[in-house]
Write a structure and sequence with these properties.
The complex is a heterodimer of chains A (320) and B (254).
Chain A: E1 7-16, E2 19-29, E3 34-38, H1 45-52, E4 60-65, E5 68-69, H2 70-73, H3 75-78, E6 81-84, H4 96-106, H5 111-124, H6 139-150, E7 157-161, H7 169-181, E8 187-192, H8 195-201, E9 204-209, E10 212-218, H9 219-227, E11 230-235, H10 240-246, E12 252-258, E13 261-266, H11 269-282, E14 287-292, H12 297-307, E15 314-316
Parallel strand pairs in A: 3-8, 3-9, 6-7, 7-8, 12-15
Antiparallel strand pairs in A: 1-2, 1-4, 4-5, 9-10, 11-13, 11-14, 12-13
Helix pairs in contact in A: 4-5, 4-6
Chain B: H1 2-17, H2 20-51, H3 65-88, H4 93-98, H5 100-105, H6 111-145, H7 150-177, H8 181-198, H9 202-207, H10 212-220, H11 228-251
Helix pairs in contact in B: 1-6, 2-3, 2-6, 3-6, 3-7, 3-8, 3-10, 6-7, 6-11, 7-8, 7-10, 7-11
Classes of the chains: A alpha/beta (320), B mainly alpha (254).
């Protein structure tokens, strides 16, 4: 093993005609980490994973796994990765055991080891008692089978494309626990648009939007950054006048109202802390609460993705 | 080569466990059984047809083992070759569209191994089914006509097999090149009918693989075959198409 990151992506570009699916993305995924690759549908996550697995070629830039360029390394890289596509395709005439053993034989795993490993992986996937053909499996069963086959070679790097998207809550929790249990032994790189999954198991997250990485940091760091520009205030009256007043301030990005509580996204915290109490007083309202709020990853995600669009102010009111 | 051998083993298992075991072998066996019977009944059928039309007299010589073999070869050269085109159309494109190519190609299996295993498995199925059906045709011909020389049948069917193997490789090339099964089937049928059309031109028949059908017919009639150029060009075309299929598939994004 080298000192290089387990996955290293440098100025990676992928164009389809005139459209940039990936626009110069840069990433470094440390060994043994659980890395969340987050983005809305169409952001370019699957394209990046297809390049990492060698199924597609980059237009420019380099993607390396364990120090080897995936465009040229071929079997050297593929023998060390496990991959679950977003919509796994299996031979419908095989049983789950046959499929996992087939995957293992492609890696040249010895029959005795393969039989034992296939059994324990199917047990983990909750499919050990299923004898029917894969063609009759539900999407969730296929997803769990996909994870089992992706782990058959005890991969150094596990690439998962939306691994929990088709699972019920119990299956989802089991898969996330399994991913978390690999921390330190296997580098897990998983793409998803489910923010709660990322918050639950990832060490680091990169947020991809329209082919660009708009954030890349440890989860805790992202949340810490997010917390300082968000304020919650509560007043003892109707805040409608106050809202129309503070909306005019240049440091206000987002205003959300819930009864007497107002949540503000601000770009200049000091100005907000100085001017808000004055504005509340001028509106004839009493101040009941004034505090910084921890932003969820979802808030962060939405804000980052919206930031790529021309700035606009929004007032969101819950339905009454 | 573990990737190649494992994928090839998967292909043979898939043939055994799915509809693929029935199509080409089923057709070959069907024609092996019906050809001697049709050859035997043809004079009676023609006589019954002419009976209903006053003034028309159809006189046919008594059928022989050669009529049985000719009927079998005619079916192979038309129906079975078209079946090879249709079934071969999805060899690579079917795996791509169903997502199973991703399952295999993200493991240590090269694209060349993938394509070559497809060719070898289809060729293996065709050769095994051809040997079996030829034996069936031989036995039935013997039992109906009292004579069934081995040499002409083996020679003519062997030449046809080279033609069919070439078609398998051509279809693998089309299947690797076209994303849709229908497109590769269309290209394959176009190739099939184009070769039929070109075979009208005598020099093409003499010096290229389009003459394989004629060579097969001459083998059956126990005439000098002139097989060298058709067989040699078929082998060269087969190797080039296999190489092309590998190159095309290697350049594709999945």
């Amino acid at each position: 093993m080298t000192d290089a990151p387990a996955i290293e992506i440098t100025r990676l570009v992928k164009k389809f005609g005139d459209t940039f699916a990936l626009d110069g993305i840069e990433l470094a995924v440390p060994h043994g980490s659980v890395f969340g690759f987050l983005g809305p549908n169409g952001a370019g996550k699957t394209t990046a994973l297809r390049i990492l697995t060698g199924l597609a070629r980059p237009t420019a830039g380099v993607a390396r796994i364990l120090g080897a360029d995936v465009s040229t390394a071929g079997n050297v890289v593929r023998s060390q990765i496990g991959y679950l596509p977003d919509v796994p395709g299996f031979y419908p005439w095989m049983t789950a055991l046959e499929l996992v053993e087939y995957a293992g034989r492609l890696f040249g795993i010895r029959p005795t080891i393969l039989r034992e490993r296939a059994g324990s992986l199917l047990e983990m996937a909750g499919l050990s008692a299923v004898r029917s053909k894969v063609g009759g499996f539900s999407r969730g069963m296929k997803q769990r089978l996909g994870i089992a086959q992706a782990l058959i070679n005890a991969p150094s790097v596990l690439l998962l494309d939306e691994p929990t998207s088709a699972l019920d809550p119990i299956g989802r929790r089991e898969v996330l626990e399994m991913i978390a249990s690999l921390r330190g032994r296997t580098t897990v790189f998983f793409s998803t648009h489910i923010l709660a999954d990322v918050e639950r198991v990832c060490d680091t997250v990169a947020i991809l939007d329209r082919g660009k990485v708009v954030a890349n940091a440890p989860i805790a760091e992202l949340k810490r950054r997010a917390a300082v520009d968000r304020l919650v205030i509560e007043v003892d009256g109707n805040p409608a006048t106050l809202i129309s007043e503070i909306e005019k301030r240049p440091w206000v990005r987002v205003v959300e109202r819930s009864g007497e509580q107002i949540t503000l996204g601000v770009t200049d915290l000091q100005s907000a802390q100085r001017e808000l109490p004055v504005a509340i007083g001028a509106a004839g309202l009493g101040l009941k609460r004034f505090e910084g709020a921890e932003k969820s990853l979802e808030d962060m995600f939405v804000e980052l993705v919206r930031n790529a669009e021309p700035p606009s102010r929004r007032v969101a009111e819950p339905p009454r | 080569m573990s990737g190649f051998s494992t994928f090839l083993a998967k292909e043979f298992t898939e043939i055994r466990k799915t509809w693929r075991i029935w199509v080409i072998p089923g057709m070959l066996l069907f024609f092996a059984i019906t050809s001697p019977i049709i050859a035997d009944l043809t004079p009676a059928i023609m006589a019954s047809v002419s009976k209903g039309q006053p003034g028309v007299v159809v006189t046919m010589p008594p059928p022989t083992w050669r009529d049985s073999y000719a009927q079998f070869l005619k079916s192979l050269s038309q129906m079975v070759l078209i079946a090879v085109v249709i079934t071969g159309a999805g060899a690579v494109s079917g795996e791509r569209s169903s997502g199973t190519a991703v399952l295999t190609l993200t493991k240590p299996v090269s694209r060349a191994s993938f394509v070559l295993a497809k060719i070898v498995s289809q060729a293996g199925l065709l050769v095994a089914a051809t040997v079996l059906s030829t034996a069936v045709c031989l036995v039935l011909t013997m039992s109906i006509f009292g004579a069934a020389p081995l040499g002409p049948l083996v020679a003519s069917v062997s030449i046809w097999t080279i033609d069919a193997l070439l078609m398998i490789v051509v279809m693998t090339l089309f299947s690797a090149g076209f994303a849709a099964r229908g497109a590769s089937a269309g290209a394959g049928l176009g190739f099939f009918f184009l070769t039929l059309l070109i075979s009208i031109w005598p020099p093409a028949t003499r010096y290229s693989f389009v003459g394989l059908t004629s060579v097969s017919g001459r083998a059956l009639m126990q005439q000098p075959m002139g097989a060298f150029w058709p067989v040699a060009t078929a082998l060269v075309a087969g190797v080039l198409c296999a190489w092309g299929a590998v190159r095309v598939f290697e350049r594709q994004e999945i």
